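Kindly go through the following sequence and its backbone structure tokens. Advise at your convenience whether the structure tokens fit the sequence:

___
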Amino acid sequence: MKLKSPILFSTLFAISTSAIALDKPKTMEDMWKIIEAQQQQIDAMKAKLAAAPAATAASPAPVAATPTAVKTLERKTDVLSQEVEKLRTNLTIPDEAKYKSAYGLGPAASKVYQVGKGLSIGGYGEGSYQTVTGDKGSKKDTVDLKRLVLYAGYKFSERILFNSEIEFEHGTTGGSAQNGEVSVEFAALDFFIDPIANVRAGLVLMPMGFINQIHEPPFFFGNNRPEVERRIIPSTWREMGVGLFGQITPNLTYTTYLVNGLNADDFSSSGIRSGRGSGSEAKAEDFGYVARMDYTPAQIPGVTLGGSAYVGNSGQGTDFGGRKADVFTQLYEGHVQVKYHGLEFRTLGSWGHIGDADILSAAAGQTIGSENYGWYSEVGYDVLPLLIPDTLQYLAPFFRYEQMDTIASAPTGFADDFSQDRKIYQFGLQYKPIPNVVIKADYRNFTAKKGDLPDDFNLGFGFIF
């Protein structure tokens, strides 16, 4: 009886301790700690059993109970381990999200790449108030829930996953006076073959510039995306296509797609933006090719150098006033980004050419530029660590300068529209109480070579999850 009590007491204590530890685990790490603790208890019980004197014929029952308890606890631990693995792979108990950009997508859009298997949900939203200053003309002050976005991804296996972005714009799609819409921003399958070459197919984001791929509000300055990346590089630009992406070296990445071509019938004096197919019964008589490369030199941390190019016919078999045209369209851009401690700097330049611009201009009744260009530079600095050391909050004044012209060169026989030759001066403040949430304020001054453009002040917010 002297042997029986301590061993049974230890057994019951171990089991009861495990039961208490299992009460409402908060994370996957907590679950694994419980399993490890149970395994230690099993090892300790086995050691006690091995050290105990052998049972005699006069007292076989007391010792026989201990191996049974050990086996029971082992079985429970095995079952718990299997269930935790199922929970991990199916995201029933998700670990804390770590927001990090992957494969050219924004941090919130990249969550599916971090899961073991199963469903991933993320998203972002942004809203703003805009007041027009100076000579407003017909422009009015507005308040707008610009976007509410849902990312939904599913990892089928280590080699195949689906990722998508569904966007609700301007609060609603109802009512004749509303201009909101629901759009699929991207929806693609990724097939991972090798780090140097993987396949993506579906509705893909065109890998040009900064904003097309990473357009979540905490990661760009100002309430409005740069105009150069709206009118010269038409964000958010997405097309149906298939292509490759990967790492040539750990510091050199690339993306390239074959996609349906732009539709030149929707080009205008303000640029090629309206020619995007966006996966909505897009014309595919002509195709386009896009490629991008980015280099992050290991010797200069925080620096990214890159560029991209798009070429393809945009005629789509359309009859332009009784004439057919290939409308060979080209767009090129180069970019540099620097992030060093609290400093953030970006600069981007883009140049484009539109073939058969004279035919398009005659058919459209407006001058469509045979050449276009735009560039901008911006800089911001997080000043809060200078005031509050070790703070996790962020406060950055910033400045951006943009210059662009959608009719940098007019086709022969057509007049230039100098109102499209513009400069924009913008300054503002960006505050993040936590990395997921941003509050923004900025002022934009517009000037054109001809005509007056109103300035605006913007106040807004954004978030990711």
